[in-house]
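Thread: quick sanity check before group meeting

JM: Hey all, I'm pulling together slides for Thursday and realized we never actually wrote out the predicted structure for the chain we discussed last week. Dropping the sequence here so it's in one place. If anyone has concerns about the input, flag it before I start.
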Amino acid sequence: MKIAFYCPNKPLGHPEPSGDRTIARGIFEALNRLGHECREAAVFRARWFWRRPKGWLRAARALTEAFRLCRAWRPDLWLTYHTYYKAPDVIGPWLSRHLGIPYVLFQPMYSTKRRRDPRTRPGFHLNRAALLACRHAVTNNRNDVAALLRILPSRAVSLIPPGIFPEEFPRDEAAGLEVRRAFGLTEADTVLITVARFRPGVKWESLRFLLEALAREPLKREDFRLLIAGDGPLEDRVRDAAERSLSSRAILTGRVERSDLHRYLSAADLFVFPGIGESLGMVYLEAQACGLPVVALRQGGVDQVVEDGVTGFLVPDPDPDAFARAVARLLADRRLRLGMGRQASRFVQTRRNLHRNYRYLSRLLEAVAGGKT
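JM (edit): ok, ran it. Output follows.
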């Protein structure tokens, strides 16, 4: 089946790493592996485009180019990943209508409160139009289902759990030992790791919360090291905060490419990241695939990717002392830590495995294209 693919928030080739980009690339690659001919039909980044006249011109130009491509190529279905009020899809609905092909959305979002704010109202209405035009909507976040059912019938909404390709994150003890040695760590050291983009907003809030928690009383006498993997515009601020809170116990590794991340995760004993404002948090699945238990806050959709009490601990309130106690418990109990790590790896393999999830997506898209749903 020929599938025209589009990501209005971040094109597949966008240089900035993020969970959205990772999910989009995973869908694209999986559908091609499953025998479909999936092409990126537009690279127009729609984020806040309506705020400037040039944005509308760029949108019109992108729509024209996509129309020419699709008229010549004749796809069987248009699939858009992640339309919402900041980056609404204005290409797929028009092409679907004029070319007579089914229009499907993966991970759309719908929030009626956005229509009340003049700054977000245009994006709300453009996104609403995309949702009303779609034949089927698929979400990987159960927290979004209720909102989608406010605008779409239940038969047009499907939930596919979030996941990763587990083979991309194998536990590699030899590689982990190399990473430890590169940062002056030994096999005997207890190593925590966190992974984040150093940018303003919720990522910085999570890093600041984490550093504060790891400096609290329950952990002051614990002998551990913290690897902080990432980079970004707030790198100096993160470095200063780490120095103040943990001194030499914190090590900034710099940016780690996703293809190398399993090596760094394999160097650690425990993954720690609060996840303030995280809708899901793919990095939790990546860490668990490498056999790491997790400590995070019970916020957003984190409980969809971490099993509290089984693969880690989810702290119910944003309390640094409670977070520190959860970390201290795992540091003090090696047997519990290793057992949760084994459960974490099994959880990803059996219940958050994208090979299984995207086979279902493939069958669903074929049914939509064939007029069966």
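AS: nice. The chain has a mean pLDDT of 95. The chain has two domains: 2-163+353-369, 166-351.
JM: adding both to the slides.
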